[in-house]
Amino acid sequence: MDNSFNNLLLYFLLAVLPGTVWLAFFLQKDKTPEPKTKILEIFFYGVLATIPTVFIELLLIDKITGLNLQNQELFLGLKFIIGVSLPEEMLKYLVVLFFVLRKSCMDEPVDIPLYMVIAALGFATAENILLFSGKIFEMISEPFILAFVRFLGATLLHALCSGIIGYFIALGFYKLKQKWLYIIAGFSLAIVLHGLFDYYLEWSIIKLTAGEESYMYVGYSALIIFLLFVFLHIAMEQIKKLKSVCIIKNIERE
């Protein structure tokens, strides 16, 4: 029984660790730290956002499967971009929309992508806990390897995609006439790249299961992570230079 409890505790810690490490990394980029209670609140709501997301994903994937597409590439593309990436990015955004943008006066433009990242890391942490508890990822039997893969893969992906959406939203409040163009561009970029990451990762698993080389597809997923990381780093440095604005005022004015 002690071993079972110790394993359970180990799996929980490994599931939480990737999100915690990335949270600390992104928070240190904020020169005027956000209230710790607010950070924990948004992180927690990000965790809760996984619940409705699961049901929406199951519904969308079922509809896509019902199309009986013969082209596997097209099916997987629709599955991961429309069935997975779209609802996940939207639900993470709704957390920030309802619990930050409409309730808080932002003192810095960088706060928007930062809160998006916080919600995303809560979401990713919930995913990690499900993976470890359900042993869904059977191809990686070693829990430390799984934690490392999630740290450099899906956990970071969630943070980067949501951060990019937040960046474009922040830009939209400075260019109100083109606000929706920026928002649509941000969502489109994040959703497509998120979907492509999952798409190539799925192909790597398919090829590996078939005994074929899968490095190329893993490389594509890694390249997406790298490009998103570089883009968000440059983006956050850019918006740090923008004049501070009370976002809530802009929302109420519309």
Outline:
The protein is mainly α. It has helices at residues 2-27, 36-48, 50-65, 72-101, 111-134, 143-152, 154-172, 179-209, 215-239, 247-253.
Give a description of the structure.
The chain is globular, with a radius of gyration of 19 Å. The protein is mainly α. It contains 10 helices and no strands.
Which key features would you list for this structure?
10 helices, mainly alpha, 79% helix, disordered C terminus, 254 residues
In total, how many domains does the architecture comprise? 1
Which range best describes the helical content: under 10%, 10-25%, 25-40%, 40-55%, 55-70% or over 70%? over 70%
Can you give the mean pLDDT?
85
The number of distinct helices, counting runs of at least 4 residues, comes to 10
Principal-axes shape call: globular
End-to-end Cα distance, whole Å, is: 59 Å
Strand fraction band?
under 5%
The Cα radius of gyration reads 19 Å
Low-confidence stretches: 136-140, 248-254
Number of strands: 0
Which structural category fits the helices and strands? mainly alpha
Largest sheet: none
Give me the strand/helix succession.
HHHHHHHHHH
